[in-house]
Structures are given as structure tokens and as C-alpha cells.
Amino acid sequence: MSAASSQRRRFTPRTIVFLTLLVAFLGGLLWDGSPLAGFVLRQAVGLKFRDVRQVSPSELVAWMQDPNRPPPLLVDARPPDRVAVSHIEGAVAIDPASPDLTALARVSQETPIVVYDGPGVVGAAMAKGLSDAGFTRVSNLEGGLFRWVNEGHPLVNDKGPATRVLAAGWAWSRLLKSRHRM
């Protein structure tokens, strides 16, 4: 092969594979509801909060419908403006910016609790905090409210059924399918 022909060949098979994977990865991040970014975030949360039990949305629904198990207390760990837009029915709101645990004062420390936030990060941190405070059966909703609504589970607000979720910003809203974004 001459020097001229080797200079014309710009992309090696390795480069082509790398570029293809890069385009697929970036496309996965921009996809409606960004399942790839959601997956990566769930893995990161699992690594950061290894001691926090994760419950998937489908596991939570089955648990809530099982008459043989005590229903979990749901804790929404989002600011009040986001909770007002939508939340899971029956959830107790605790603002993570100024956590006031008086809502849990009469709750037995053996009561099963499932904490959630938007994408699942703050919920995991609050679940860890509740465990450290002596609550023994605390879990985090894996993927948070975003995964919950993306999988088609119901939301409510003070006016009744809700379909939209208020995210912390544009980047976080990419984890929601477009029909659920505000």
C-alpha cells in the first residue's frame, strides 16, 4: 500500500465502530423519555446508595395491591411546587430542602416506607437518612416518579388525576416522555 492510499483511508473499522456506538449512545440520551440515561442514572444511584433497597414501579404496584402485605407509606421527597403539580396518590410530602419529619412522628419505625423524588436521586438520599434515623423498612422507588409515570402508572394532584410532572430543569425533563413534561 502506498503512502498516498493510506492517507486517503481516514476511518479504520475501529473508528467506524466507535463512531457508531457514540451516535447510538447520544441518540439514546436524546430519545423521548431517555431510557438509556434513565438506566445509567439508576445504576449510578444503586452504586452510590448500595445500602438502600430499590423497588421498581411494577414491584410497588404489586405490593400496594397485595392484601397479604402491609401497604407502604409513600414519601414524596420533592419541593412543594413539584408535589402540587402531581404525585402518587396517598403520598406524604417532605421537602428535601428543609426536611420536617413531623409527618412521620406517629409512624412506627417498622412501617414499610417507599421514598421517591423525580429521577430517584434525592429519594435514595432521603431513604438513607430515614434508615439512619432508625426506620428499618425503607426503600427507594427505582427511577423515581419519572419512571413511574413513563411506565403508565397514575398520578394525582388536588384537582384529581394528573398526567404531567414538573422536573427540576430541562436536563432532568429529558428523562420524562414528552407527554408528561411541563
Give structural notes.
The chain has helices at residues 3-8, 13-30, 35-48, 57-65, 80-85, 121-132, 144-150, 170-173; strands spanning 53-55, 73-76, 92-93, 113-116, 138-141, 155-157, 160-162. With 182 residues, the chain is an alpha/beta fold. It has a single domain, classed as Rhodanese-like domain (Oxidized Rhodanese, domain 1, 3-Layer(aba) Sandwich). The longest helix is centred in the N-terminal third of the chain and has 18 residues, at 13-30. It is elongated, with a radius of gyration of 21 Å. Strand 2, helix 5 and strand 3 form a beta-alpha-beta unit. The protein is built from 8 helices and 7 strands, in the order H-H-H-E-H-E-H-E-E-H-E-H-E-E-H. Helices cover 42% and strands 13% of the residues. The strands form 2 sheets. Strands 1-5-4-2-3 form a 5-stranded parallel sheet. The mean pLDDT is 90.
Give the spatial strand order of the biggest sheet.
Answer: 1-5-4-2-3
Shape: elongated
Radius of gyration (CA) equals 21 Å
Highest CATH level, the class: Alpha Beta
Question: What string gives the helices and strands in order?
Answer: HHHEHEHEEHEHEEH
* Poorly predicted spans: none
Instruction: Return the domain count.
Output: 1
Estimated structural class: alpha/beta
Note the total helix count.
Answer: 8
Task: Give the CATH architecture.
Answer: 3-Layer(aba) Sandwich
